[in-house]
Amino acid sequence: xxAAAPLAEAGGPALNVARPDAERAELLAWVKDTLRAEYxxxxxxxxxxxxxxxxxxxxxxxxxxxxEDAAYQELRGLGDWDAIIAAPTEAxxxxxxxxxxxxxxxxxIQETLRLIRDAPGGYNLDFLxxxxxxxxxxxxxxxxxxxxxxxxxxLLFNYARPVFPVDTHVHRITTRLGAIPKMGEQAAHxxxxxxxxxDPPFLYEIHVNLLRHGQQVCSWTAPRCGVCVLRERCDAFRxxxxxxxxxxx
Length: 249
Ligand code: SF4
Known about the structure:
Layout: H1 21-39, H2 50-60, H3 65-76, H4 81-86, H5 89-95, H6 102-118, H7 133-141, H8 148-159, H9 168-177, H10 185-195, H11 200-216, H12 235-239
The chain binds iron/sulfur cluster.
């Protein structure tokens, strides 16, 4: 199916809210194929070890990737995980100062590491590979500073579990496209998982290519719709007659 679905509220500013799930699923499959043609195939393989992924994702909250990486490198400069737990919290906050909100992230990171160290597997998180997904998500989101996005990211990227991390880029673009009705980021995890296939390579590729599309084309304040390969099926482009406004979450 190539044509866009009719708008639920013809003539109004709201994006499509009445699209059937099968149509949302088909739209997302088209998005994945279209972004692959634009940005290439993205095979699923862990980019860093699970604990690195977990801590880096906490640091990435409201922080760009350069500052996230700088904060992580300086944090590791304090020593091994035991040394980071034992360090004064002010020293941890100073080490991660390039990440936003270092004073609140530092104690959460130390407590998260302490809980992981004291768990049966210690710093090895590989038990997450075998746990039922619901339990794995719960175990991770019970850690301080770990939300469903961070937990999903570790489970998908490191353990190829069929979950879907929804970051700000994924949330914004899938909403503008009309793949989901407008809702909060937390609810978007459930709504998107419901219409995406339980196929980790598919989930990984559409996640990373949406991230890239959000960084390069479909930005918060000035989406570059004129060069966007998704515009022919984008609700926001159609509703706003090509002049898509800044994103308001
Ligand atoms: S057409 Fe515009 S609003 Fe729609 S996905 Fe592309 S850049 Fe974003």
